[in-house]
Write a structure and sequence with these properties.
8% strand, mainly alpha, 46% helix, 72 residues, single chain
Length: 72
């Protein structure tokens, strides 16, 4: 899941189906189900939530915690 979270935050955005295949899922429906169970959001919702101006880093624990980093 960590790789899929990283890929969903890349710019320019890749198609979600491409990310699912890259991460080893043969079924897009399975990817959506497992991602939703893990993150509490759809892949598209996760991408939207993490596409703010400040770069976001998903927690390595996979707990769905997002830390926003800002430069000063």
């Amino acid at each position: 899941m960590s790789e899929s979270r990283r890929l969903l935050c890349e710019k320019p955005p890749r198609p979600i189906a491409d990310i699912a295949l890259t991460c080893g899922f043969r079924s897009l429906a399975t990817f959506y189900r497992i991602f939703g169970d893990s993150e509490g959001l759809t892949p598209g919702g996760f991408r939207t939530k993490n596409s703010a101006e400040a770069p976001a880093v998903a927690s390595p624990s996979g707990a769905g915690v997002v830390i926003h980093l800002t430069a000063k």
